[in-house]
Design a protein that fits this description.
The chain is of the alpha/beta class. Helix content is about 55%, strand content about 10%. The chain has a 4-stranded antiparallel sheet with strand order 2-3-1-4, with helices on one face. Strand 5, helix 7 and strand 6 form a beta-alpha-beta unit. The radius of gyration is 25 Å and the shape is elongated.
Length: about 325
Amino acid sequence: MTPFLALMTSLPTGNSTIRMRVWRALRTTGCGVLRDGVYILPAGSPRAAALAEVESEVRAAGGFAMSVELNLKTAQFELVRKLFDRSEEYRALVARIHAAKASLPRLGKRKADTLVQRLRHSLEELLEIDFYPGPARLQAKDAMAALEREAQQLRSPGEPQPAKRKLQRLDLAQYRNRTWATRKDLWVDRLASAWLLKRFIDRNAKFVWIDLPRNRPKGSVGFDFDGSEFSHVGSRVTFETLLASFGLDGDPALESIGYAIRYLDTGGIPVAEAKGLETILKGIREKTQDDDERALEAMKVFDLLYSGHAQKAAA
């Protein structure tokens, strides 16, 4: 049974500054309040070290602070664990997420992205201090995923639906010196796919960005829209479909990039560099004037990302 760390404090009266600082520090740890001045955390929590920092700060300010380890019996453990029930916090967050989802159509892209990012940050902070997860955690994650899908759909209308078919290995020579068509207003999957096509599949590729699938040039190869030759298949996003179709899925660096693209495009298992990549691509979107320029700048980013992963894989 997991032991708890308890911090007992008595702060100097009249020093409101230290009281506020300690309160804020303890709040971020997700600690439970056993009684006034007694704060506890599971001993294995990554935030447990913060209690020692608070203890030092209280003593430096002239107060009393002492940390002890609590080994509780089963009945006591169950009572203490209830102090860490995050159900109400999740309920409040889900309500905010639902309200945000309803408001997205009225917001511009910039405000919508900012709102979604703020709620994602709130969820991640709550997940970090949810030491005993329950059903509320899953409900909040599902609500957040739905909000992000809605925001993505508003940002990129026509997002393809995953097809249910078996992928076949294709002859690379048949796809050289081609014109490739995809939806305009490029974002993660299309940017990464365009880079992959240019660097690994068709070095002489020409791209056209279209409003609607029916506007694709005759003879062009479509990607990342319903009815195109290369799009979402099962759990794969378009980038991963291209990898599998052309036998590139054996490259660990490309495979790692694919995981990040899938996470950013459809959600799922978080990938370490995904948020950093998303931030850079958002910067490119704000800086560039059109899709040609956006694709060119993104290709530089993916070149560097690929080099980093390739070096790591070779080590």
